[in-house]
Amino acid sequence: MFTSFSTALSALNADSTALSVVGNNLANLNTSGYKASVVYFRDLVTQSVGAGLGETQVGFGTAQPNTIREFTQGAIQASSGPLDAAIQGDGFFIVKDQSGQVMYTRAGNFQTDAAGRLVTSTGERVQGWSVNPVTGKVDTTVATGDIVVPTGSVNPPIATKSFTLDLNLNSAATVTGSPNLSYPITVYDQLGTAHVVTANFTKTGTNSWSYDLSVPAGDVDTTDPSASTDVTGTLNFTNTGQLDTTATQTSVTLNAGPLVDGAPALAITWNMLNSDGSPRLTQVAEKSGVSASTQDGSPAAQLTNVGLSDGGLIEAQFSDGTQIVVGQLAMASIRNPDSLVARGNNNFAATANTATPVPGLPGSGGRGQIVGASIEASTVDLATELTNLIVYQRAYESNSKVVTSVDQLSQDTINLIH
Q1: Which domain covers residue 265, as residue numbers?
Q2: CA distance 267 to 212
Q3: What is the reported pLDDT for 53?
Q4: Measured CA distances, 104 to 81, 85, 124, 348 (Å)
Q5: Do 313 and 273 lie in a common domain?
Q6: pTM summary value
Q7: What does the pLDDT average to over 26-43?
Q8: pLDDT of 174 above 90
Q9: Domain shared by 314 and 288, yes or no
């Protein structure tokens, strides 16, 4: 009978632990990336009572319960944070604390610190790949490191090297000696100054046109003997309206300079052919006009926004509308995530039982995908936790009743000797 005390006390201790687990789960109901813990009870070894082996077995109660964190998928919720990210599937974000210890997290509410590094809401540095200063590209073949996001930077200007025009020249046009079509193209020099190249097309005869590419005379120092502002040539077409590439120079370079803003002279190539060699120019009985044009230059631009997109790409947007990739998040694949130990701040650390974490790109090697502008919600289920709370409460009350009952019986037994 007296073993009933220790049996009931072991149950009280186990139920107290279970109540603490439920309380912790409920406390983290709204914690991003939190994974709920589950309590597993187990009995203690039993003793045989009586002469017959195993005829009467009495247990010694319950052992300290095991708690296992279940890494199930949480709901993906849209967020307003430009650097927020959520993992859809298996894997973890890799972070480092101030001491350099590597940890893992599913919480993707990121931000930047004073040095421009991508960090968690509690200051751990997010690991991945940044732009290689030599190549200007993100190199994911090297070891992971801190991700540095550019802040307040200027995207340098890019001088225009080439442009294209997709156009049709009206075969029914008459020869007047004046341009039948004029089209302006904005290009940029190495200082980012914009210049307008005007393309004039004049019909000179059947299936024959002349062109003139020029920049305004005010953009060029015309007092220089070597000054150049335009280039001219001839376009020839077949009787089916196709550009005759055998009788037409299909690549023309406009050299304009010296420029009055001090930038190097313009050297811009007009490519009349597509990449597959087909002409971009036609001559059919339709109104003359340009359907599309491209040029590969851009002015200097201020950084206006940095955001995290799907796939873990960190993209910088500049005032001229261009976007460039400036970083890539890394993900760790861990085969047995339930062996991780919680370190607080939504972080986990590997233990001796943890399989070696393997960093890599999202979507590779069994890793999940990264969803931008989203946060993974806690996996705590309110209904389940409240049900468990009631069950553990009733179990605690029942076992406390065992203690009071055995105590009363003990008093009765002691009183038998009086």
Answers
A1: 162-295
A2: 15
A3: 59
A4: 21, 14, 10, 5
A5: no
A6: 0.73
A7: 94
A8: yes
A9: no
